[in-house]
Fold this protein.
Amino acid sequence: MVGIAAWGAYAPRLRLSRKAACAANAWVAPNLMAKAKGERAMANWDEDALTMAVEAARDCLGPGDGRSHVDAITFASTTAPFADRLNAGVVSAALTLEKSIAGADVTGSQRCGLTALAQALTSVRGGAAKNALVAAGEHRRARAASAQELDFGDGAAAFLVSADGPAAEFLGHGVVTDDFVDHFRSADGEFDYNWEERWIRDEGIVKLVPPAIAAALKQAGLEASAVTHFCFPSTFNGMGATLAKRCGIAPEAVRDTLGSVMGEAGSAHGLILLAHALESAKPGDIILAAQFGQGAEALVFRVGEGVASGRPRRGVTGSLTDRKEEANYLKFLFFNGLVEWDKGMRAEKDNKTALTTLYRNEDMILGLVGGKCRETGVVQFPRTRISVAPNNPGVDTQDPYKFADRTARVLTYSADYLTFSMAPPNHYGMVDFEGGGRIFMDITDVDPGDVDTGLAVKMMFRLKEVDEKRGFRRYFWKAVPDRAAAAKPAALAAE
Amino acid sequence: MAAGIKDKVAILGMGCSKFGERWDCGPDDLMVEAYVEAMKDAGIEASQLDAAWFSTHIDEVGTGKGGTPMSIALRLPNIAVTRVENFCASGSEAFRGAVYAVAAGAADIAIAVGVEKLKDTGYGGLPTANPGTLQPQVMPNGSAPGNFAQLASAYRAKHGVSREELKRAIAHVSVKSHANGVKNAKAHLQKAVTEEQVMNAPMIAEPLGLFDCCGVSDGAAAAIVTTPEIARAMGKRNLVMVKALQLSVSNGSESQYNQWDGSYFHTARIAAGKAYREAGITDPRNQISMMEVHDCFSITELVTMEDLFISAEGQGWRDVMDGFYDADGKVPCQIDGGLKCFGHPIGASGLRMLYEMYLQLQGRAGPRQLHDPVFGMTHNLGGGPSSNVCSVAIIGQEGA
C-alpha cells in the first residue's frame, strides 16, 4: 500500500501584516487596499527555500538518529538558492542522510511540489526507492507595491513516501502539461511577469486543471463526489470552489487556501495544503490535492488508520500557531533585498567560503554533528582527533554524535549592536546541550529582551552568511527559543 | 616547577608613544616615538642591541607581516627581529621573548617593541581579524564587545547579582579609569565621566554601553631588558626586576567541555597562580601594590579582579563599588587610565601596562605617582572569555 508515511511543514515565524504593507504603499498603489487583510508568512533574513525545506523535513522525519531508512531525497522549489549545486544535497547533508541515497531537484513550475511527490510515489511503487523524502520550500520575491508581494507567503512542506505508507494510501495521479504562460520568470530574472488574471482563470485554471483531476480520480476508481478534502492553492478568490463545482466535488470539501494566514508558498503550497488536510483528516477520508502550473498535477489519497502516527510535532497547524506579527513593511523590503541600504563598512567583510574546508567539515557544518568519546562518554562539538575531556584526552576515540535534535539552554549571551547584522542586534551566545556538548552560536528569531541565561532553545538550519560577491550562501545551525518548552513550566504552574 | 624568571632580568629602559587617534602618524612613526624614549632611558646605542621582538596583531591595517617593518623603521643593525602575535596579548609576548633571550644568555641586551595602527580602517571600533577558513563558517558574526559581554550574563546568573547592580559596578570601573586618565598626558582619553553618563551611554553589546568599552587607539611601546649585572655595570641603581612572566592558553575546554560556567577566565586563574608562585607572592591582595589589567571592557576588569585572586569570587563587584581599586584604594588598578583611557593599540598594550608599572616603581609617574609601590602586576588578555591567551607579569623592586 504505497503512500504517505509521514509529513511535516514549516512557516517562518514572522507574519507581515498586509494592512501595514498596504498602508505603506497606499500613496502609490491605493488599489491594493482591498487586499489589506490578514497576514503573509515572511522569511527571516536568514531563511530561504532550502532552510525552510530542511525544517519541514525535520518535522516530517521527527527527532532521532535513525534516518538510514530514507533512500531518496527530492527538493522542489522555483526559488532554489543554487542553479547549479544540488539543492537536495544540502537538504540531505543537513538531515544527515546516507550518502548512498538518490537525490534530485525538481523545479520549473508552480506545480513542481506535487510533481516531486508524484515522482516519489511512482518511484516507491515501482520499487526504485523504499522510503522517498520530498521536501519543498519556496521563498518568492515580488516587486514592492505589487499584488504578488501581498499574495505570496514563504513556507515549506515535506513528505515521506513509503511502500506501506500508513498515513494515506496513494490512489491516483493525473497530469496535464501545456505551455500556458500565466506568468514566467526568466532564468536570470528576479521577478515574475504576470498576464491578466481573468485569462489565467478562465482559459487556464478552469480548462487545464479539471482534466488532471479527472485522470487522477479515474486512476483511483473514485467519483468526484467521494472527495472529502479538496486542496487547491490559488491566489484568486473562490478558485477552488469554481473548480469543485466544475469537477463535481462537494463544495464543503474545498479547503481553505490559508491565503489569509500565511499567503501562498508557490510550489510548496500544494504540499502545505495536503499536509494541513492530513492534520485534521479521519481514516477513510479522500484527499484530492491539485496545483496549476503549465498544466496541472493532481493526486488522490485515502487517509489511513496510521494517520495519527504520521502526524508531525509542528505541521502546518503548529506553524500557523507559532507566529509573530511584523508590522514593519520596511523590514520586509530589507530582508528581501528590495532596498539599497547603508550596511556600513563592517558589512564589507569578505564572506568567501573555502569549499575545501566546507567539504572536510560537511557533517559538522551542515549536519551539526559533533563527537562522543568511546572511552569517557564525553560529548563535544566539534569532533576532534584529540578529545576535549580534560583528564582523558584520548586520540581518535570519538564517534559521530548529532546535536541538531537535542534540547539546549543558553549559558551566556549578548545582544550585539556593533557587529553587522541584517536584524540587529545580533544575538549569540554559548549554548549548552542536554547530554553534553556546547556551541558558541548565533541565536535567531529573537528580539531584545527575549534571551536570558537558562533560556531553552532548539536548533534550526539557517543561512549563516551570503557571499554577495560570489553568490554563495553559507549555511549553519542557529539557536531559536524553544517556545513550547518555555511555555510548559508556566502551564504546569497554572495547574 | 622550573626555577622561574624571578630577578634574572632587569628593565633597562622603557618608552611609550602618546596613544590616541594619531592621524598624522603611521606605525613606523609610532614605533620610533617609543623607541627613542626607551633608548634614551636605557642610555644605549642601537649597536648594543643583540636581539629584538616585535609585536603587532592586525595584518589588515598597520605594518603587515614579518619582522622587517620594525627593523626598517628603527634602522636596527641587522639583528634578529622576531615578530610575535598572540591576539591582544601580543605586547606581553614581545616582552617575554626579549626577557627569555637575556635570561638564557643568548642576548645581553634585547628590545621589545609593540605597535598598532588601528585608525586606518575608516570606521570606529576594531577591524575584523582574519579568523581562518573554518571559524567563519560556524562562529557567530560577533564583535569584541559582544564576545566579552557574555561574561556579564553568566556572572549575573552565577552570583545572583541584579542587572542594575552589575551595570552600576561596571560603570564604576570605567568612572575610575576615566578619573585616572585625566592625570596622564599620554592617554587617549583624558576626561572624567560620571556613573550616570556611563550607564546612560548608547548600548554597544548588551549590557555594555559605549563607556564600558576601551578606546581604539594608535600607539607603540618599547622595553629594553638586560641582566642585573650588566645594568649595574652601566651604573644603574634601584633596578626594576622581572619577578614573574606567565602565559596560559585555552585548549578548548571552556568552549567545548561542559564545565566552565562562562563567568570568569579559566586561563587567568592559571596564569595568576603560576605568576604568584614564580614571584614568591603568597597573599596577593596584600602584597600586590598596583595593577594594570586588560580592561578591554569594564566587565572584563571586574571579573579579572577575582581571577587574579585579589577579590574573592563573587565579591569583585562589591570591592569595585567600595573603591578598593580606585587611585586611593588598597590596590589601585589602571592608575594610568588602562586600556579604557590610555587606549588599546593592541600590539603595544602589554608593553604599555609594563611601562606604567615601571614608571611607578621608579617613582616617575608624576601626578599619578603611588606611594612606594613594591610589586606591580600586569594582566594582558587576548581572545574572548571562552577561548583566549592570558599573560600575567609581575615586576618589582630589586630585593623584593
Notes: Chain A has two domains: 3-335, 345-368+403-494.
